[in-house]
Queue: 2 jobs
Job 1
Amino acid sequence: MEQRRAGEQPFTVPEPCLGLAPTFPLPDKVRDGQFRSWEAPSSPQWSANGNDVTWHEAWECARPWFKDPRVHQPQRLYHPEGWASGELDLVLRWDGKTRIVDIKSGNTASAFSSSLEHQLRFYAWLWHETHGGELVHGMEGWYLESSERVSFAVPIQEEIGQLTAAYQGYHSAMQDHSGGVIAFPASNEEACKLDAAGCSWCLVGRSDGVWTLPEPFEWVGALPKIETKQPYAPLRQVQGKVSVRGRLTGAWGPMPNHFSEHVLGAVLVVGDQHITVEESEPGACPNLHELLEQEVVLIDALPGVWRDQARLYVDARTQMVSLSEMADEDMPELTRLGLLRTRANVRGHVLSINRRSGKRVDGKPWTMMSLMLWDGDHVAEVVAFGASINQRLLSLRPGDGLAMTGAELGWRSGILQLRIDNRKTRVETF
């Protein structure tokens, strides 16, 4: 109450309020924001500190918090250490107790309904980590299609430490793919034995040619073997992490990358060649600027390309060492800038397809198509944006064969992402 009367916002993620302008996480990306009007017929009026509480003040303090529908940008809670984040839908708190609600458009019979409890437990843990150790008192899912409310037991204090360890393990595992691609399927011994949260792919296993296949994926075992010949290469041979040496200069950032995430960057100069060095995601390498204007060795950097320009991405696994402090016997095998591979020629079977659309943080519309490509031993995500989504891609179905030459290398959370550029990438189906 006193905070509000003083004109302060009590929430890390501001609540929407009629008559007040919304708070955009990236206001400089909002087109014509200064020309918009947020006036309303009425807006909250606050008394001076020390006065009796009015009814409308009590309502403003007790009403639910919810994501501002006027804000098209993500409004996320971030873990204090930066390695986890989540975006809530609704928080009930009228009686002084916190209840988290996630709103779903479907019903409890949907394929992913079993994931809701896992999602809400993550939100409850994140609330604890971002609100001074506060435990939530309730977790619910509201299904709009079927008008159902589903409640779940909340994590107790003794479980918070276990959840922290589990989530840290997931984060580390995602960052730990040195080759950038994921082996698939797992062995029959390592494959999951029970249904996971809304996904059955982890139940697929194979050992010595013997498959373990859930009924929905029996078709996977019948797919013909992929024969890889020039100019194509297996996914495992796509160049993963590399080590390079040069002078680090030209620091910039935090500035938005092509995903409109604020990251740090610099330039690595080797002779008369130079290449942009950039965090793979926000906070991935906070010490990037510590060795400016020095000869450095970057170990386990990720090669990629953006707008026809080669780039090196660095993440939490990338080491940056001053050349003067590195012994000869510790020097890794170095890759020359001119020999960095920023594109790949691959072929395989399509396992799954997804298409999404929405608005970027600057308000512009976007459309994205993603699919998982499997060459018989490994899988990698393939994505296409906007004009690169052609009729050939739209006609693809799971099980179809797809061959690509000149696919761009990209990285998300240390995992390989192949991007289709309609000007440079040739796509064929078989």
Note: Residues 118 and 197 are 7 Å apart (CA to CA).
Job 2
Amino acid sequence: MISHYNIIAGVLQTHTFDSVSRKAFGVENQAMLGLLPFSHVFGLMLITHLGTFRGDEIIVLPRYTFLTFLKAVSQYRIRQLSIVPPIVIEMLSKQDVCRQYDLESVEFLYTGAAPLGKETVDDLLRIYPKWRLGQGFGMTETATVFIQSSEHDTFVGSTGSLVPGAKARIVDVDGNEITDYETPGELLIQSHSVSLGYFNNPKATSETFFTDKDGRWIRTGDEVLVRKAPSGNEHFVVVDRVKELIKVKGHQVAPAELEAHLLTHPHVDDCAVIQVPDPRAGEAPKAYVVKSSSAKQKPEDNVTKDIHRHVEEHKARYKWLKGGVEFIDAIPKSPTGKILRRKLREKERQERVAKGAKL
């Protein structure tokens, strides 16, 4: 349940945060692409409400296609691209198409809905070295972002800093507060934009929201750490979803780390990593991979071996894909590009049942 108060607070917090960079770069108004679904909090808040509030021109695309997207960027001289990681990956894999359009107007690329892996960032900056890259971090339950990158303080690998009016706390598995840099824990957030709770679901509300002597907080379910940027400012780095971390013999493996690495391999067009049961390690990482066009011409066994080798040559042993590699036509995702791991976990569970495995 998101109140009008939550929406107004979210708009004012983000507007105040952005105003510093906009002033520094001489931007009063700009054209923004209405590319993301307005039914999702990213498109609804950061494009529709925020854009209207500050007087931006919003170019609404009836439906997304890669060519329509590129054509709009070129035609309307889009300066800031607010998109999701799957579109970034599509840009990297279709450079022959991108080169047919004038993207010189782009100065700042802002992504949200899912983390952007370091390898993807490196590839993007290699092709577009003049672009400044930023990320936002938020939830539907918080009326969009509470952490985001400032255009004048970008720090590759981070999702930015707290917006005005928001407070953060990082806790370990026992609920103890973490105050050291580079130490991961679950992120708790307090903000005027935090929603009222879940409609007609008191159990979920009590599990996600709580009140203590310092006020009302939301458990984000995300593991983060704080890192000092070269500017001296504190930035948040998202490690992974707490519930999605893979526990291998006591080690924690972040699916997002493996996914970002896999996407650097020429055989991989898209991918997702989940945990599967392992009799010795407890859990093991398993990769679902969409093969690139070049990989489709090769024997599947060879492609599988190449992918395993790619991980084993660069990652610690407990991060190896002991759960296997399975090829799939498409990775299930939400309209905003978030990987729907639950669908892959259910698919994998059904496959184990069919093989007679005990659950």
Note: The radius of gyration is 21 Å.
